[in-house]
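Input record (Table S2, row 478):
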Amino acid sequence: MLSKPLVLYNSLSGKKEEFKPLKKNHLGIYVCGPTVYSNVHLGNCRTFISFDIIYRYFMHKGYKVRYVRNITDVGHLEDDGQDRINKKAKLEKLEPMEVSNKYTNDFKDTLKEFNVLPPSIEPLASGHIIEQIEIIKKIIDNGFAYESNGSIYFDLDEFRKEYKYGKLSGREIDELISNTRELTSQDDKRKPYDFALWKKADSKHLMKWTSPWGIGFPGWHIECTTMSHKYLGEKFDIHGGGIDLKFPHHECEIAQSDALSKNHSVNYWMHTNMLTLNNKKMSKSTGNNILPKDLISGKNKVFKNAYSSNIIRFFFLQAHYRNVLDISEEALKASEKGFNKIVDASEKLESLKENKSPESNYDIEGWINKCYDCMNDDFNTPKLIAEIFTVIKLINKVHDGKESINSKKIKLLKNIFPVFISEILGLKIDKDDSSDSDALLDVIIRIRDEARKNKDYKTSDIIRNRLSKIGYNINDND
Ligand code: AMP
Ligand code: ZN
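Output record (zinc ion complex):
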C-alpha cells in the first residue's frame, strides 16, 4: 500500500491542491517573520511552529528546501502612523538597533526553546534598503506608483486597470482605507486606499535612509516582496504567514509582484490560524497575550501551572494549523497527559521484546502509511497524533505481556516511531535531547517529592522557595 500524494490548502484557490514543485525535489518557501519591537508571544510561536512542521516534513520527504523567513526591523507602522520600532526606541531612549536586536534575540531564543529549526536565510528588512529602492523604482517605471511630497505610493486605480486587487482575500480596496496603517499622512495620497512603498521621514524619525526621493524609510509590504524575490526568484513555491496577514499585507504583496511583471508569482499561499486566549486573538497590541517564558516557568497571571516547551508544542500540534486554537489550563493539562504517554511509550519501546502471548495482527506497515496519509493531507498533525495513540495502545499491551508482536515488527516500530515523534513533529523525547537545566530541574523536583513523602517539609519548602526565586513555581495543589 502506498501513501497518498501531498496535498495542501492553497489560500489563493480556496482549495486543497496536490503540491507540485517548480523544480523537482526542490522547495522555495517564504514566511513572514516577526516585527521585533517586543517579546514574541505564544500566538506568534504557534504560527512559526506550524511552518516548522511544514519545513520538517518537506525535508523528511527528501526535498532540498530553501526556507526564507524575514525579520521586520523597519517599516511596520502602527495605527497612529508611527513605525513600531522607532516608537519603542524613542519611548525607551534606545537606538532602534538596540530595540530590534533585543527582540530578535528573544525571538530566536524562544523558537530554539520550542525546537523550531532555523530557516535557511533570515534576512533583515533594514539590510535590504538598496534592493527595496530598486524594486520601488521598477514599480514607478511600470506606471503603478507615484511620488508625492517625498513619499511613494502604490497607485491602486492605475493597477486595477490591468489587474485584479483582492485575489487572495476577496476583499475590496475600500477596506484598505479602514485597514491602512498610515492614517496620519493620508493627505499626500491621491486616493485613501493607495499604500506606501516609501515614506518621507521627518527630522525626529530615527530610522531613515537616503533615496532618490529624499530621506525616508520603506513601507512594510515592499520588504517581503523584495526579500522573497531576491532569495527565491520571481516565481517560487510557497508563501506563508498568519491568517491576519492575508489582508492587507499579502494582498498588497501580490499587487506589488504583479506590478513588477507578469512573471512574478507564488504558487501556493498558506495561512495559519490564530491562537486565542479567552476566545480572543492573542496579540501584542491588546495585551491579551502570554509570553512563552512565563508559561514555561509558571510565572504568569493566567495559568497556575508550569508547562514545558515540549508540552506547549504538543498542545499546538493537537490542533490543525488552519483551525483556531484556544489555550486554557484544562487543554494544557490534557496535552501534558498525552505527551507523557508518548514519552512513556518511547521508553517502553526501547526495551520491547517478543513474548509468549498470542501474536497481534496489528498491521504496522499499514499504520505507517496511514501516518503518512495524515501528513500528506495538508499536514494534519492532530490526525497523525491520533494514529500515534493507536500504536501506543499496542506498545503498552506488548510491554505488559498481554499481546506479542514479532521481532521484525518491533524493529520496524523502533525505527519509525522516533521519525514521526522527533523528526517530523519535532518533539524532544530523549532525556539526552532536553537541556541540562531541564534535566537538573527534574532531579531537584524528584528530590523534593521524596522529601514531601517523608514529611520532611522543611527541606521541601526550602527547595520550593529557592526555585520560586529563580522563576520556577511549584504548585502542590495539583
Ligand atoms: P507580528 O510580529 O505581529 O508581525 O507577527 C508574527 C507572526 O505571528 C505573523 O505571521 C502573525 O500572523 C502571527 N501571529 C500573530 N498573532 C498570532 C496569534 N494570536 N496566533 C497565531 N499567529 C499569530
Ligand atoms: Zn511579509
